[in-house]
Amino acid sequence: MDIGIKFCGGCNPRYNRIQCVEKIKAKFPEHSYVTQKDKKICDIWLIICGCSRSCADSEDLISLKKKFILKSFKDFDMVRDYLEKEQNEIGEEEDIKWKNPINDKLPPALQGRKELILGEKKEMNRTITQEDLISFAKLTGDYNRMHMDKEFAAKQWFLKPVVHGVFVASFISTIMGMDLPGSGTILMKEELEFLKPAFIGDKITTEVTFSRCEEYKRHYIGEFKGICKNQNGDILVQGKCTQMMMKNLFLVKNLA
């Protein structure tokens, strides 16, 4: 995990703050420890105040899991307890995954070949949340201020943080991987246009159309057109994708 550390100004510290931090680092060396200069978003933030005034500002620091406001050396016991609990839970989760590797998010197994019809469409709706934005930034490492910094974005063209365009476009991939054509397809090519921005709170409607198909001995090559619209009907992303579909998994019924 990324653990962020921010100290107060240290005008009147009542305990040895640095020593307390070093003990945490020594006990849990598997984590990455950073400061607010390195990152604004961490799994855990330790806001280390030298006294009960708690004057350290942490509003711009985002915690994916928990933020601790530490006012005395005794408060660090809470951090140790939390990290030890996290260690135990991770170990239990790994045991469960080893015993039961099938994730409940997997689509159901195909019974025979999945039948597809040229021209058919599939649609999905999703509302974008701040948690989506944070998770995507953490996953990709893209912490561009245009996405993550409200004060910076407020001075730019769109006046507020813009959702990563590739995240919005990924909804097209979701439909193709899960529904049309579905599980077992392989993406070969993708061409996208980003026409308008998405923002936190937007309800995105994504539609994919099976537009063209070529048949080969063991597989099909299909073209799928996708669009993502917001709640106002504005097209945010549009594009087309080429998918390979093996004949042992798929059957396209209405080819000429």
From TrEMBL:
It holds the Pfam family MaoC_dehydratas. It comes from the Bacteria. Residues 122-218 form the MaoC-like domain. One of its GO terms (molecular function) is (3R)-hydroxyacyl-[acyl-carrier-protein] dehydratase activity. CDD domains: R_hydratase. One of its GO terms (biological process) is fatty acid biosynthetic process. This is Acyl dehydratase. The lineage of its organism: Bacteria, Bacillati, Bacillota, Clostridia, Eubacteriales.
